[in-house]
Amino acid sequence: MLKFWNTSVGKKVVMGVTGLILVGFVIGHMVGNLQIFMGVERYNAYARLLQEDIIELTWAVRVTLLVSVILHALSAWQLTRRSWAARPVDYALREAQVSTYASRTMRWGGVFLFVFILVHLGQFTLGWTWLLPEYAKGAAYGNVVLAFERPFWVLFYLVAMFFLLLHLLHGTWAVLRTLGVAKNAAEPLARRIPVIIALLVTVGFSLVPLGVALGVVR
Amino acid sequence: MTGTMNITLKVWRQAGPTAPGKFETYTARDVSPESSFLEMLDVVNEKLVLEGKEPIAFDHDCREGICGMCGMMINGVAHGPSKLTTTCQLHMRSFKDGDSITLEPWRANAFPVIRDLVVDRSPLDRIIQAGGFISVPTGAPQDANALPIGKPEADEAMDAAACIGCGACVAACPNASASLFTAAKISHLGLLPQGQPERYRRALSMVTQMDLEGFGGCSLFGECMAACPKGISIDFIKRMNGDYVWGSVSARPEKTVLTSG
Amino acid sequence: MKLDAKIPSGPIQDKWDKHRFEMKLVNPANKRKYHVIVVGSGLAGASAAASMSELGYNVSCFAYQDSPRRAHSIAAQGGINAAKNYRNDGDSIWRLFYDTVKGGDFRAREANVYRLAQVSNNIIDQCVAQGVPFGREYGGLLANRSFGGAQVSRTFYARGQTGQQLLLGAYQALEKEIARGGVKMYNRHEMLDVVLVNGVARGIITRDLVTGKVEAHVADAVVLGTGGYGNVFYLSTNAQGCNVTAAYRAYKKGAAFANPCYTQIHPTCIPVAGEHQSKLTLMSESLRNDGRVWVPKKREDVGKKPSEIPEEDRDYYLERKYPSYGNLAPRDISSRAAKEACDDGRGVGPGGRGVYLDFSDSIKRLGAKEIGDRYGNLFEMYQRITDENPYEVPMRIYPASHYAMGGLWVDYNLMSTIPGLHVIGEANFSDHGANRLGASALMQGLADGYFVLPYTIGHYLASTKFEKVSTDHPEFRAALESVQQRTTRLLSINGKRSADSFHRALGKILWEHCGMARNAAGLTQALQEIPVLREEFWQNLTVPGTGDTFNQQLEKAGRVADFLEFAELLCIDALHREESCGGHFREEHQEAGEAKRNDEQFAYVAAWEYAGDGKAPVLNKEPLEFENVHLATRSYK
Question: Is C541 a member of any domain?
């Protein structure tokens, strides 16, 4: 097990598996969020379901997610250090040929997403008042509306969703290749399903802050 | 034949592995567009030699794109601007009069510079030593046609086997990863029935050796595939990963069997 | 010098089996005590080093490139012959043997060729087992094609990269043995001398091309698999680093050099484009299976576009002269016919040195797709170099120096006239006579390395008593010193011409006077010009830099120095051989434009013995006896 973790391919596989878990989570999370457009009762009932009725299951998911994020970030950090060490003297000139902007922003985009997750948890789950002074426990709908009435947070969330889009564009494509289960392709760099997943998730998420900002959700 | 051209070259000069390096500027005059890139460098070097200066060192041998000896970063692109082309097969008609060209060696911690544009690629040999072979001693085999191999499998194995070991994949990779090189050999042998007995053992030990040599990991940027003069697909990296995972899951401990005579 | 070929007695088909049984074996426990040096890591060197290591010998292998996988065997495109008769088209060991002797224009040693044909089948088995991805049929069996000069389909291939795949097979076997510890590999090392102790080869002197360190290496036997000397012509299809140095140094230490005038000029190469040219690129002669060779009938048409020349004004000269073989006539004949057409003022392209290889009829008959499937990679290569599209305009081709049939003389055991010094692959002379057939070089390199030398070297080691020798031995010290002195000398001339310019000048002399067609007057002139050029070399050479660093100019200068001496030997041999045979065409000896052999006087191997600097080499003759193939005029009409 340790031997597996100690190779670059092993770490990539860990990153891929945890990434898949996180992709599954963001899809579910996004679908859940969209209930905000069905009214305050429905949304708050959904929040209650997660936080009270099936709280044991929620914790199981939370622990899984926490472990996934830690392993995902740790493997990314170690692989990044490995690639820095692999080229101590950089080129004066190197022109990217086919790599996508998405693939080249995985690392710093990932760091931003990590910060975003902390902020997001602080605002809506942990109720850090320095992030959201009006936070009220149990009033999930109200908290969301209060946050996104501030243009700064709308912007912050939209930027984060942009990075999530990029991360998913490369990540959901790369993961099947990292795990060695993708099919051979005439154009291996072409990606269709990953684009659909990435767009669905990010557009779905973005609708919430946009809905509040545009007054659809109030 | 069209007119000749003048080219400005910015070349990395480094006297030895530990010596500091720097760029020097040279002018290549009256270059024929019909000449190859290395022939253009030959002319520059001839002039340097006659001036009593040390010529630009670069590796090259067959000059027909198959030995894998040549290779340099040409304006930030491994093997230069033509696709599926080694440096030696690049021709000056790809450039125009007045162009400025920056030349750098392959840069990777695993490929220390020997001199100027020449690097030490012996880590690639050691990756092969770790398992890039089928253990069949001379004289042991059965008749060649006793083992039919479907044409599609044989063709795919040949696609992977076309690797010339030039190191452009490492040079072009933002991570300086040797995954494409390693994957090509794992796939070539792993696709063939002859390679099955050692398939997973081979993947495990070659990947381990690749890491030991200090190459970066694979982020699937795809730059290696674009740089590869033989067009080797990153699909083979996928295959290597699959073999590695399955090999790790299914590995049996290797026993030492005692025999008595 | 006494030349004893040590050919076993008995019927030809039993010689090798009988010999294998009669040879002494080395006790398995003793094998690791023997140290064998292999110089070169091409098909012959790598396969020999790997096979001997598998047997248990302690092997050191040397290559001037940065990895054994770079050796120029890798560039062979077309294929490898074997007498498998998988096509049921009448092939057999006898037929491969017969074709090779006849193709070599009856100047090869029968017994060696028969053995080559015998082991050809083992080579294919071995390579398949190693994972060489040969071309296959949909049924899963190996594919074959017919190849230059053969009327059966016996050539196995891996796309247009057969040499690469076979070399990688041998390379992988070699790396396996390096990992196991049986072979110690010395990359970027060049052999600069062979060391004899009491007349027996006991080691070599090398220069580490990275550090410049000159070192001595002791062994019980030395094997040269150092390839051919085609680069003596400067422009050739060989790799830039290919050289005669190892073979020539062995010659100067007493190894006879056999038939140096047998050089193969390959008919299908891309013509010279200009003065800058550093090498010529070969295109597989499999192209001649579907391409038709022609030049304009009229001299005034050479400047026209090929499409403007009507069918009736084209001279398909190979089809005209050799109706039964047509465009598939053997290499020497095709090359010479191209030269004749160009000499006649009907050559096309820059400098009038080219003939057309036209695929338009085949494209009409088979479709562009089928032609693309067969030759796509070659067409791409041609277009990359010339910027012309062969699907639309005919290719232009011209012959270029490609292969050396001549080489160090060896006996049946592949040992040279220096005891302990074995020579394999292109570096020896034995199997191809005066002309090599297509797809036979790969076969010979691997036959020597996998299936002949590993047996014969055991016999040598088992039947020889070795005195203990170290690098402190006076012979080693003297050799080391002389190598160092020579390096110092090259560096201290401080003249005004580069090694490359001398090489280019030498190439011009040889191509002009000792190329595809030779005559006494030209050869005599070459023999006057070469010493003058050599004299200038040692007066006017400049090599920048020092001897203790990576210095490519110094490497080149050393190789050119040897070429400048060797070229003279080549011309001497060409002048003495008053006949036309295979790659050696003497204009004085022809009949109606066809080569005329002289079997009464020249059915022998010319093995030249070094007699000292400034002295004429001594000619030794090994008579060739043909008991199984009847001497006949080689006719491809």
Answer: yes
Within 177-216 of A, beta carbons closer than 8 Å to B belong to 177-182, 184-185, 188-189
How far is it, in rounded angstroms, from Cα C397 to Cα C399?
A: 7
Residues of chain B with CATH 1.10.1060.10: 121-250
Tell me the CATH number of domain A11-80+105-213, given options 3.30.1960.10, 1.10.760.10, 3.90.1150.10, 1.20.1300.10: 1.20.1300.10
Q: Report which of C416, C459, C458 is spatially closest to residue C194, judged by C-alpha positions.
A: C416
pLDDT tier, B1 (very low <50, low <70, confident <90, very high otherwise): very low
Judge: B158–C496 Cβ closer than 8 Å, yes or no.
no
pTM higher than 0.90, yes or no?
yes
Task: Return the beta strands (E) in chain B as ranges.
Answer: 5-14, 21-31, 73-74, 77-78, 100-104, 113-115, 118-119
CATH 3.10.20.30 domain extents, chain B: 5-115
Q: Are A92 and B207 within 8 A, CB to CB?
A: no
CB C410 within 8 A of CB C423: yes
CA atoms of C107 and C109, how far apart (whole Å): 7
Domain B5-115 architecture? Roll (3.10)
Give the residue extent of every domain in chain A.
Answer: 11-80+105-213
Closest residue on chain B to A98 (Cα): B223
CB spacing of A86 vs B215 below 8 angstroms: yes
Q: At B34, which helix (H) or strand (E)?
A: none
| pLDDT of residue B62 exceeding 80 | yes
Q: What is the block-wise mean pLDDT of chain C (637 residues), using blocks of 10 residues? A: 95 98 96 97 98 98 98 94 96 96 95 98 98 96 85 92 97 98 98 98 98 98 98 97 98 98 96 92 89 96 94 96 89 91 94 94 94 88 93 96 97 98 97 94 98 98 96 98 97 97 97 96 98 98 96 98 98 98 95 91 98 96 96 79
* pLDDT reading at A133 higher than 50: yes
Q: Cα(B167)–Cα(B162) distance, rounded to whole angstroms?
A: 13
- Taking CB atoms and an 8 Å cutoff, what residues of chain B touch C505? none
- B241 with A13: Cβ contact below 8 A: yes
Query: Hey, are the CB atoms on C542 and B144 less than 8 Å from each other?
Result: no
**Do residue B219 and residue A82 have CB atoms under 8 angstroms apart?**
no
| Domain coverage including residue C341 | 268-400
Interface check for C83 against chain B (CB to CB < 8 A): the answer is no
- With beta carbons under 8 A apart, name residues in chain B contacting C72: 61-62, 67
Partner residue facing B176 (CB), from A87, A181, A189: A87
β-pair type (C35-39, C221-224): parallel
Assess whether C484 and C582 both reside in one domain. yes
Tell me which chain C residue has its CA closest to the CA of residue B130. C179
Residues in B touching C127 (Cβ below 8 Å): 144
